């Protein structure tokens, strides 16, 4: 496994502990093996020293971020290439959004989700049945063998 | 050190033997329970009794403080019913009740009649369940009247419920807690 996410200047990080939990920021300076200086002028994170332990590294980098860059410089760099928008497209961000949405569901919503999931699974099973039927003898035997393994 | 003089207080008031002490309320009229933010038309989840877990529609608060709810009867079998607001979870789902008229229904609607009390009588001389012919007809008309009231109240409700998809099925289902549900995290 090749290590790809480094603690470096410009690395986009997600804060996962503290009052700023869940917000994104950029690493501006590395202080020692345990602490970094981060800043998120567009994401509402104040420029601050934070232990690396409280961060999760993302795979995105802010292009044009230099060591010790001020908030204004960072904002300009973000305007050119926005890694935070790219992060929002990533699967990790989508998972977080999904979890937040599920937490907000009210009782009626949860009921509707349950019914829709049942309908979807019913559709899938009928499709699967018809595929098995049409596939013929060989495929059917394979499918049967597969079920036995489970 | 000299012993402290202990004085035993003897009151001026002595109870006589035949005086009964009753529990007297300081407040004469019952104070109706303050309604939490529950709005007519809101769907409530009943927490206790025969219909626990059922989702019902709230109609209004009665003078006694109890909440008047209805299933509607055709959807989940819950009739016009009084319910204590402490045993209820209000959900954020609301049904349009502008066409529903529950003005005639109050606490007297739910009072037990003499015929009903007779039925439950268990005295040595009382013949259980035996009503006179006129009492039986009176009971019959009373029950028919109740059925009609139920139908008239529910009619407008059901048309309003049918407008939202899956709301009828939602009201027909019971609320349950499984292994993985965390009630303290649920948003109702």
UniProtKB/TrEMBL annotation, chain A:
Q: Which UniProt keywords apply?
A: Ribonucleoprotein, Ribosomal protein
Residues of the KOW domain:
6-33
The stretch of residues making up the signal peptide is: none
**Gene Ontology biological process:** ribosomal large subunit biogenesis; translation
Q: Which Pfam families match?
A: KOW (PF00467), Ribosomal_L14e (PF01929)
Q: Which InterPro entries match?
A: KOW (IPR005824), Ribosomal_eL14 (IPR039660), Ribosomal_eL14_dom (IPR002784)
Coiled-coil residue windows = none
Question: Where is it found, in Gene Ontology cellular component terms?
Answer: cytosolic large ribosomal subunit
Q: Which GO terms describe its molecular function?
A: RNA binding; structural constituent of ribosome
**Per its UniProt record, what PANTHER family does this chain match?**
60S RIBOSOMAL PROTEIN L14 (PTHR11127), LARGE RIBOSOMAL SUBUNIT PROTEIN EL14 (PTHR11127:SF2)
Q: What is this protein called?
A: KOW domain-containing protein
From TrEMBL, chain B:
Q: Sorted alphabetically, which CDD domains does this protein's record hold?
A: KOW_RPL6
Q: Which UniProt keywords apply?
A: Ribonucleoprotein, Ribosomal protein
The UniProt entry, under InterPro entries, shows: 60S_ribosomal_eL6, Ribosomal_eL6_KOW
GO CC: one term? cytosolic large ribosomal subunit
GO terms (BP aspect): cytoplasmic translation; ribosomal large subunit assembly
Q: Where is the signal peptide?
A: none
Q: Does the keyword Ligase apply?
A: no
Annotated Gene Ontology MF terms? Answer: RNA binding; structural constituent of ribosome
Domain of life of the native organism: Eukaryota
UniProt record similarity statement = Belongs to the eukaryotic ribosomal protein eL6 family.
> PANTHER family, per this entry?
60S RIBOSOMAL PROTEIN L6, LARGE RIBOSOMAL SUBUNIT PROTEIN EL6
Name of the protein = 60S ribosomal protein L6
Q: Which organism is it from?
A: Paramecium octaurelia
């Amino acid at each position: 496994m090749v290590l790809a996410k480094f603690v470096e200047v410009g690395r986009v990080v997600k804060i996962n502990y503290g009052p700023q939990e869940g917000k994104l920021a950029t690493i501006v300076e590395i202080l020692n093996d345990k602490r970094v200086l981060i800043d998120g002028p567009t994401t509402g994170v104040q420029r601050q020293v934070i232990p690396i332990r409280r961060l999760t590294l993302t795979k995105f980098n802010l292009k044009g971020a230099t060591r010790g860059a001020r908030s204004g410089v960072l904002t300009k760099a973000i305007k050119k290439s926005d890694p935070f928008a790219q992060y929002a497209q990533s699967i990790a961000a989508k998972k977080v959004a999904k979890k937040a949405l599920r937490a907000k569901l009210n009782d009626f919503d949860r009921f509707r989700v349950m019914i829709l999931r049942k309908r979807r699974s019913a559709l899938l099973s009928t499709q699967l049945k018809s595929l098995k039927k049409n596939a013929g003898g060989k495929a059917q035997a394979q499918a049967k063998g597969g079920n036995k393994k489970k | 050190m000299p012993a402290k003089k202990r004085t035993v207080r003897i009151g001026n008031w002595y109870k006589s033997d035949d005086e009964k002490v009753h529990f007297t309320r300081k407040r004469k009229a019952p104070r109706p329970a303050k309604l939490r933010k529950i709005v007519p038309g809101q769907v409530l989840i009943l927490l206790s009794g025969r219909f626990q877990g059922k989702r019902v529609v709230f109609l209004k608060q009665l003078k006694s403080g109890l909440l008047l709810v209805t299933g509607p009867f055709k959807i989940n079998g819950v009739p016009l019913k009084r319910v204590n607001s402490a045993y209820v979870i209000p959900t954020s789902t609301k049904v349009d009740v502008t066409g529903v008229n529950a003005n005639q229904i109050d606490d007297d609607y739910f009072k037990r009649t003499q015929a009903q009390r007779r039925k439950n009588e268990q005295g040595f001389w009382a013949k259980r369940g035996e009503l006179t012919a006129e009492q039986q007809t009176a009971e019959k008309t009373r029950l028919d009247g109740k059925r009609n009231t139920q139908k008239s109240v529910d009619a407008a409700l059901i048309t309003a419920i049918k407008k939202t998809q899956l709301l009828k099925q939602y009201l027909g289902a019971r609320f349950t807690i499984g292994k993985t549900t965390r009630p303290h995290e649920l948003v109702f």
